[in-house]
Specification:
The protein is mainly alpha-helical. It has helices at residues 5-20, 23-38, 46-70, 77-87, 91-99, 102-113, 118-125, 129-147. The longest helix has 25 residues, at 46-70. Keywords: DNA-binding, Sigma factor, Transcription, Transcription regulation.
Length: 153
């Protein structure tokens, strides 16, 4: 099964953008992700391809975060707000998402913003699909509680 690079490029870019909060850095990380992916053409299954892309992107974002942290490059509050306004709707949801752990927030963003299939996310986290579904339900319950709403996603 072949991979539609254009379709996946936007998803990987959004993923990187949400993690690094800087447009140019996210573009660079996305390009680097696909360059590294192309070095591993033996991944033929779409599930494995998506898993590899998100693994590479996640690792690159983590490396970038470490570099930024060690060089003490502070991002401005304004750019964070602009990113959130472009990606997520609703002030309450943004506040609720920030109350989640980084891993829980990443799961929600992968699943509902990037529409990554549950089985791919489960493989990335090395847990079963069922465990991931339970975790997603728990996260959504927490978001509902934070927002004080009955209906969410």
């Amino acid at each position: 099964m072949s991979l539609n690079i254009d379709e996946q490029y936007d998803k990987i870019y959004r993923y990187c953008f949400l993690r690094v909060h800087h447009k140019e850095t996210a573009e660079d990380l996305t390009q680097e992700t696909f360059l590294r992916y192309l070095e591993h053409p033996h991944y033929n299954s779409i599930d494995k391809t998506l898993q590899l892309l998100y693994t590479i992107a996640g690792n690159l974002c983590t490396d970038e975060f470490r570099k930024a942290k060690t060089s003490e490059l502070d991002e401005s509050e304004t750019s964070d707000e602009n990113i959130e306004n472009n990606v997520l709707s609703g002030f309450d949801l943004k506040q609720a998402l920030h109350k989640l752990s980084n891993e829980d927030r990443e799961i929600i963003l992968l699943r509902y913003v990037n529409e990554v299939p549950v089985n791919v996310i489960a493989k990335l986290l090395n847990i079963s699909r069922f465990a991931l579904n339970r975790r997603i339900n728990r996260i959504l319950s927490s978001l509902r509680e934070y927002m004080g709403k009955e209906e969410l996603i």
